[in-house]
Amino acid sequence: TGLVTLDQGFGSTAACTSAITYIDGDAGILRYRGYPIDQLAEKSTFLETSYLLIYGELPTQEQLSAFTNKVSRHTLLHEDLKRFFDGFPRDAHPMPVLSSAVSALSTFYQDALDPFDHDAVELSTVRLLAKVPTIAAYAYKKSIGQPFLYPDNSLGLVENFMRMTFGFPAEPYEIQPEVARALEVLLILHADHEQNCSTSTVRLVGSSQANLFASISAGINALFGPLHGGANQAVLEMLQKIQKEEDGNVDAYVDRVKNKEDKGARLMGFGHRVYKNYDPRAKIVKQQADGILKTLGVTDPLLDIAMALEEKALADDYFIERKLYPNVDFYTGVIYRAMGFPTKMFTVLFALGRLPGWIAHWREMIEDPGTKIGRPRQLYTGSAERAYVGMGER
Ligand code: CMC
Fold first, then answer.
1. Considering the entire predicted model, what is its pTM?
2. Torsion angle (degrees, nearest 10) of CA 170, 174, 179, 185
């Protein structure tokens, strides 16, 4: 069977070729389809970036309008899917609610599940981009006991999501354009990151020719973990802990992390498998954090704690030697909090952003004639052959 080599965590094994996203971890470079992330964050919209990731090129005005119209026409959830939310406990975390509802989409749309039917994939792509924001907003509304708001298709994707999340049926919802733009930029920054844990999961599940909804649902579950997308929630909880238990003093916390005193405790929002330099996304998020707090007139002591923590860690040999820098999750939570999102929703926002990347990778995988079912090997470390021992002799 040839030589099998051990590569735990796939640190040096490429599982596919891909033309979607380029990362140079040493130089701190990130590009989608060749376009630098800072240019997209400044100039693009989330739907335009989604189009770029999925179809490979920036759309013309006509292509973008057609794409936007298609997505807006599919934002409603089936009334039966709405009832699905009633089955979850009131305090359910919205991430498993989101993954369950996305998984359930394959029961509602059985007409378009064939991975090799181009029109079906196109329809599932649009349905996902349109419905995931609605599902995410409903998961939140359910958790606070408020009524669901139907989408308003005269609004853009981000504005519609904010209205469904924060609006009330009895009142008009006033959108703050600076806040909507800040959220849009965050979604663009999260839109793809090549073969991360959740995207690899989407590809692996899809490699068995499971449908797009099933594959994306698996990706959402992979994203939930605190070492991946769940880190944005974990960062905020860490900052709150430092505020409460250490009186905002970051020194003792950093010392405990580097002396590995609390078993497994890490500086959340720091470190990355690929970036051994400042995460280019974190640079943009940090600038955004300052601006959006000023716009909203919010002062948040957690931002001061985060900045002190970053300063302390970046000057500390432990972090310098290991090339640990802030990643995308370090400052996002402070912004989400200022916008009014509860901590539990942070990873859902990451999922909203990552959705086009997952779809683009699944489609690239399905269209690649070189794709084989994902099936890693192992190095067996268990017992050699032994004879069955009867119950009385054990
Ligand atoms: N705090 C303290 N020490 C750390 C950290 C951290 N955040 N990250 C890595 N290290 C240490 C680790 O203990 C190890 O030290 P030693 O050699 O003494 O054992 C060394 O650095 C190498 O770490 P590793 O675990 O081999 O690195 P990895 O590439 O497997 O892990 C990571 C990458 C992102 C999982 C990790 O850095 C981490 O757990 N960070 C905190 C969680 C986090 O912020 N995750 C979000 C990642 S970015 C967004 C996303 O993709 O979701």
1. 0.96
2. 80
